[in-house]
């Protein structure tokens, strides 16, 4: 079954994978600060509304996150996700070395936040889906 579009905004597209029953969020370009946080909060709402435990975020269109935004993810967003029942997140990163290094750091930092939450990164959406399917 094909993914269906849940929502489209300037900064992202949210799709639904009916096979895995997970949302897939794709950044369409770099955003930071309030815009980044507003979009991430919207993703949180979508996950809560759907009652999911897993999600994918596709960051192939950006090479790096703003340091303040990474700190916000760790201190505010991931704890809020855990509170609504999210247990696994998978990231898909771009081909650049910078993107790979950035996402590996994000993986380490986010996975260390809460013992019930794990975030892993992958070079392809297929690998991310395979990992989530095994969880």
How far the N terminus sits from the C terminus, by CA atoms, comes to 20 Å
CATH architecture: 2-Layer Sandwich
Give the structural class. alpha/beta
What is the H level of CATH, i.e. the homologous superfamily?
STAS domain
Say what oligomer this is: single chain
Shape: globular
Number of strands: 6
Strand content: 15-25%
Q: In CATH's first tier, which class applies?
A: Alpha Beta
CA radius of gyration is 13 Å
The number of distinct structural domains comes to 1
Helix content: 40-55%
Mean pLDDT across residues = 91
Strand order of the largest sheet: 1-2-3-4-5-6
Largest sheet: 6 strands, mixed
CATH topology: Transcription Regulator spoIIAA
String of helices and strands: EEEHEHEHEH
Account of the 3D structure:
- The two termini are 20 Å apart.
- It contains 4 helices and 6 strands; from the N terminus they run βββαβαβαβα.
- 28% of the residues are buried.
- It has a single domain (4-133), classed as Transcription Regulator spoIIAA, CATH 3.30.750.
- It has helices spanning 33-50, 67-83, 97-111, 125-133, and strands at 4-8, 12-17, 22-27, 54-58, 88-92, 118-122.
- Helix 1 (33-50) runs parallel beside helix 2 (67-83).
Quick description:
Helix content is 44%, strand content 24%. By secondary structure, the protein is of the alpha/beta class.
Overview features:
135 residues; alpha/beta; Transcription Regulator spoIIAA; 4 helices
Element layout with pairings:
Blueprint: E1 4-8, E2 12-17, E3 22-27, H1 33-50, E4 54-58, H2 67-83, E5 88-92, H3 97-111, E6 118-122, H4 125-133
Helix pairs in contact: 1-2
Protein name: SpoIIAA-like
Organism: Halobellus clavatus
């Amino acid at each position: 079954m094909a993914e269906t579009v849940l929502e489209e905004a300037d900064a992202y597209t949210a799709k639904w994978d009916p096979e895995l029953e997970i949302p897939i969020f794709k950044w369409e370009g770099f955003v930071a600060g309030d815009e980044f946080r507003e979009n991430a909060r919207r993703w949180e709402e979508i996950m809560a509304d759907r009652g999911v435990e897993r999600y994918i975020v596709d960051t192939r269109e950006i090479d790096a996150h703003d340091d303040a935004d990474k700190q916000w993810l760790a201190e505010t967003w991931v704890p809020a996700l855990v509170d609504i029942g999210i247990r696994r997140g998978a990231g898909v990163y771009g081909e650049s070395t910078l993107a790979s290094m950035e996402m590996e750091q994000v993986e380490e930092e986010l996975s260390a936040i809460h013992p019930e939450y794990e975030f892993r990164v992958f070079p392809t959406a297929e690998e991310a889906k395979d990992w989530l399917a095994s969880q």
